[in-house]
């Protein structure tokens, strides 16, 4: 049994005993979004109605009653006029929602760190502004100090030792506590990184030295998950390490930064929520719904699909219970609500995940917008380089096709003779390959179709991407298609009056090595919920 299969089996057992009953009630719900003062060229329209949240009659009454904490960022604290800050903090107090501030707390050095994520600005000025505007700062969420202060090797990173890092962060914490002595400090860090299993151990070490230097433990740890990497293994290792130190675990749910519209973004964020709660079976202490992407462009109203508050409304409803099993060639199941009553007429989608890659080449798809300064593009493959990648890979790539809405077309192969190309690499081995470039049209919507095969063991090892180049031939942007098993939607139907469903998988006679998942839409009483059926090849183990 491969490492992935052994881990997948463990998660399936957890999911069967916990997740199908739905997450525990009482988890903190956090809400956060880019504010008007943090917009830029890459996200000019994000959260257009952000300040409307703080009107007395703002249409998020139900969601506001479920949100425990509202998190603001440095741009609002540092750049918003005084009257705006007062309005925001006054309304949060009126609603009984606690205030959190996400900020870099690593002091920059003489020649590094300034203006870089994770590093501090004028911390003293920021907390004084919060206090003067009537803010009651309950939480500070540090913006990835361990990653950006200690690990990252970007040009302006300081690469501090743990001792240097915690000394600087402790100074920032002392400044904050001089104004807000009861504030609780927590950390945000990425999960699913190139460091693999060493990363959770480093987080645990960092948490211990933070406690020693500041005199108090981290109140929480919020996981900023790389959804395209092997985050499940990292999270499974990290969770008990945090628990032993008394640190509560939260998960940040965001969508796809390349989403074509707001609904696509929130749909992907909901899938991430379901993945954690229903398929993996982890019940975090806090669910953080947050965007720093160009979407969604609207936070309100809570009744509008695609708004950020609508995502929270849907996710905070009770989960359904989905029972699912094999019966010969059929897949049977039943959907009930939290009280055990059948849920009739709800849409059920079944999909199959080809864990072993036995189905051969499958079409994978990518879509986005050509950058305004792009003049050409090429296809590239990267394994364990130019990414947070560290795994083994076994990938076959066929034809790659590009199309844009202005009539642009291009077809390329990785191999010069237009044959299939197979790339096999062990852990840590780097592979890269580029095709010949082709012309693109700036600002055009584009689609890419790739014939590709990869298995579950290749997750987190790399990607195929379209690289957009400027007039000087230098890269402007890359949009990746990560390696992973092919997923097929093979049946869609509805539950009957008793909440039951039955499918014979269309076009599939062999389910060995195939993970079956069931997804149901919410119906106003229950949230969208997922379940999974153990792969046939590991039944009984």
Jot down its keywords.
five-stranded antiparallel sheet; 11 helices; alpha/beta; Immunoglobulin-like; TIM Barrel
Account of the 3D structure:
This protein is an alpha/beta fold and 541 residues long. The protein has 3 domains: 27-315, Aldolase class I (TIM Barrel), CATH 3.20.20.70; 321-356 and 487-538, Sandwich (Immunoglobulin-like), CATH 2.60.40.10; 362-482, Immunoglobulin-like (Sandwich), CATH 2.60.40. The chain has helices at 3-17, 61-66, 74-79, 82-95, 123-132, 145-151, 162-179, 198-214, 231-244, 262-280, 308-315; strands at residues 28-33, 69-72, 98-103, 137-143, 184-191, 220-225, 248-253, 286-291, 321-327, 330-336, 347-354, 362-369, 376-383, 393-404, 409-412, 421-425, 431-434, 438-439, 445-454, 462-469, 475-482, 487-494, 500-503, 514-520, 529-533. Strand 1 (28-33), helix 2 (61-66) and strand 2 form a beta-alpha-beta unit. Helix 7 crosses helix 8 and helix 8 (198-214) packs parallel to helix 9 (231-244). The radius of gyration is 24 Å and the shape is globular.
Summarize, please.
With 541 residues, the chain is of the alpha/beta class. The chain has 11 helices and 25 strands.
Number of domains: 3
| Overall pLDDT score | 88
Share in β-strands? 25-35%
The count of DSSP E runs of length 2 or more, i.e. the number of strands, is: 25
Query: Any idea of the CATH topology of the largest domain?
Result: TIM Barrel
Main sheet properties: 8 strands, parallel, barrel
Q: For the CA atoms, what is the radius of gyration?
A: 24 Å
CATH top level assignment of the largest domain: Alpha Beta
Q: Oligomer, anyone?
A: single chain
Structural class assignment? alpha/beta
End-to-end span in angstroms?
11 Å
| Helix-residue proportion | 10-25%
Number of helices: 11
The CATH superfamily title of the largest domain: Aldolase class I
Q: Biggest sheet: strands side by side, in what order?
A: 1-2-3-4-5-6-7-8
Taking pLDDT < 50 over at least 5 consecutive residues as the criterion, the unreliable ranges are: 1-25, 537-541
What is the second-level CATH architecture of the largest domain? Answer: Alpha-Beta Barrel
Broad shape: globular
